[in-house]
Amino acid sequence: MTTQEQQVVDLLKTIETGASEPVAVINPEKYIQHNLSAADGLQGLGALLAALPKGSAKVNTMRVFQDADYVFAHTDYDFFGPKIGFDIFRFENGRIVEHWDNLQETAGPNPSGHSMTDGPTEAADLDKTASNKTLVAAFVDDILVNGRMEKLGAYIEGDAYTQHNPQIADGLSGLGEALKAMAAAGVTMKYDKVHQVLGKGNFVLTASEGSFAGKHTSFYDLFRVKDGKIVEHWDTIEAIPAQSEWKNQNGKF
Fold first, then answer.
1. HSE toward the beta carbon, residue 8, CA cutoff 13 A
2. For residue 197, what are the domain limits?
3. Per-residue pLDDT reduced to its tens digit, 12-45
4. 8-state DSSP, 247
5. Is residue 174 one of the residues assigned to a domain?
6. Do 177 and 169 touch, CB atoms closer than 8 A?
7. Residue 103, strand partner residues
8. CA atoms of 196 and 247, how far apart (whole Å)
9. Which residues form the SnoaL-like domain (predicted)?
């Protein structure tokens, strides 16, 4: 791990341990918070952690990757119940100055037996970071934002696709069945805008805004790429509360 990747792992672990030293990586003069359940700054983070019953939290970071000034992590949490989360931290002059996240209640295993976090954890093909980010950005724009399903085969090779969404089975066939079931149930999913594309080697994370089942929603999708095709996918889906309920005014994105 890079120094900043390790700093993020240590910081997240403080939710479980209560250790104070790793928090020093946060710039106390500038900490912009996009978790809408927490007030801005270090005080907001402290208040959120103080609300946890002592000894109740568990944190297991499964993946952590750095892309320039950003570090993104994929973590198995248990605080106020089991959750899977993606966290993004922005560094400036060696300190964390901004944080985004997306949390979903833990579910699964999915129809193919995968959990929301299992699978490869180490980045490879570091020389292909830029091309893999371009590929994933094109996939999200073509398929998820614009619904150009006829292009799906250009990005995913048949059933050579491992799925970690708790409701969807592996492969294009599993995705097709899930979309049919959603349509039959009258559930719609729409991606409207991609806010961030971050990557390291064969792993690429996108943070997108849209709607799911009629609710304003944040979608975080992590993709693993191999030989120019998307071969694995993890995600979290979180409803965005009404602005009147926000504890900061920085917005989700």
1. 30
2. 126-239
3. 999 999 899 999 999 999 999 999 999 999 999 8
4. S
5. yes
6. yes
7. 85
8. 23
9. 136-233
